[in-house]
Amino acid sequence: MIYIFLKRISDIFLSLVALITLLPVLIIIVAIIKLDSKGSVFYKQVRVGKDGKKINILRFRTLAAEVDKKAQQIYFQHLSSGNLGSEEYMKVKIKNIPYLTNVGRFLRYTSLDELPQLWNVLRGDMSLIGPRPPLPFEFQNYYKDWQKEILKVRPGIAGPSLLIKKSELTREKWLELEIQYAQKRSLFLDLKILYKSFFALLFWNGE
Questions:
Q1: Does residue 52 fall inside a structural domain?
Q2: For the chain, what is the total number of helices (H) and then of strands (E)?
Q3: Is the pLDDT of residue 86 over 60?
Q4: Which residues pair with 158 in a beta bridge?
């Protein structure tokens, strides 16, 4: 399929250009994280990727090294049941995540913590544009069989949820958009989402 070929070529080219262009920014972020708190600069998180394959996505570490992972998972399970785009949800997500570091709070707000995922795109685990890869517990608890169609495509750094107002982004609407993308994806739709994601990052419209 020509679309799949062109999309992969675009992913390789754009992610490579972005990594080279943003290298000074990446180095600065690495230095600030090291100065702010102990622990690794990067954080690997297991997600569900294309065809149900488990992938390790990279992020800049935003949490303190001493994290109670079980307590954190319970927290995210509770939080993820709400309105994903509401102002209240956004405030809780950014300000009250357990063990969030000072630098981590800024990185989450600006979405700069996701820049290392450009490496995942270059490797082929992810695409620049696509459905967001769910956490394993999210996939098991929230996805019905017909919703698993999103696994037919590579997950992306930016997804179709950028095309609607955050105040309208419920979990049901989010899944609906993800599935529609998997069914109707095109280069035009990818460019539209890429355009939106660029301005979301430019104006620090954090998620």
A1: yes
A2: 9, 4
A3: no
A4: 129
Computed over its alpha carbons, how large is the radius of gyration of the chain?
Answer: 17
Give the integer Cα–Cα distance in Å for 87 and 91.
6
| Amino acid at position 186, single letter | S
Distance between start and end Cα atoms, the chain: 33
Number of domains in the chain: 1
Q: Where are the beta strands (DSSP E) in 114-188?
A: 127-129, 156-158
pTM, whole model, 2 decimals? Answer: 0.79
Mean pLDDT, range 121-141, rounded to an integer:
88
Q: 187 in a domain, yes or no?
A: yes
Write the secondary structure of 108-134 as one string of H (helix), E (strand) and C (coil). Answer: HHHCHHHCCHHHHHHHCCCEEECCCCC
For 17-31, 87-101, 140-154, which range has the lowest pLDDT when averaged over its residues?
87-101
Sign of CA dihedral 62, 172, 86, 98: negative
For residue 34, the enclosing domain spans: 2-201
Q: Per the domain annotation, does 207 fall within a domain?
A: no
Give the residue carrying structure tokens 């065809």. 51
